[in-house]
Design a protein that fits this description.
2 helices; 65% helix; elongated
């Protein structure tokens, strides 16, 4: 995981290397999407843990 700030150097690197990064399996996502997914997963796991076993 990495965090990219919108500095000129960062944007230049990404523009020049997005194809290479994608070929290596790297994808760019917004942090809000990652946090949202993590929160949803944690919520599901917590609700399952509190359910009685059958």
């Amino acid at each position: 995981m990495g965090i990219a700030h919108p500095h000129v150097e960062t944007l230049e690197y990404l523009a020049a290397n997005l194809g290479k990064l994608a070929a290596e399996g790297v994808s760019l996502v917004k942090i809000s999407d990652v946090l949202s997914t993590s929160s949803e997963l944690a919520s599901v796991q917590n609700s399952q843990a509190s359910e009685p076993a059958l």
